[in-house]
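Cross-check.
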Amino acid sequence: MGAASSIALSGMRDAQLRIDVAAHNIANLNTDGFAPSRVISSEASGGGVRSTVQQLPAPAPGMPGGPPAPSATDLPTELVGMMTAELAYVANSLVLRTQAEMTGTLLDMLDGGVRHRHHH
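Predicted model, tokenized:
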């Protein structure tokens, strides 16, 4: 696998993790005291992305004897994060497709050259 493919795959894994984490956060939107998580991405050696999940601090507790603190999940933030991750996933999949098409074209060119030499 080429460097471009490896980098694109790591980008796709990062985007998928972001979608999964946002979905988990949204699923807990109404869970009292829920602390959402975030994906932290950094450059991987040799290119690509390394992703880790970090939990944000828990919301401040409610008043003693009162209702518990609501979830700290912010729905607009999660939805924007999901849409951004989806675009990143699609962009990286296009890199993979382009890499595959380029490889196929190169192989066709090489195969054509081999056939051309055998016909003479």
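Residues 3-118 form one domain. DSSP finds two helices and two strands in the chain. Passed to J.P. for a second look.
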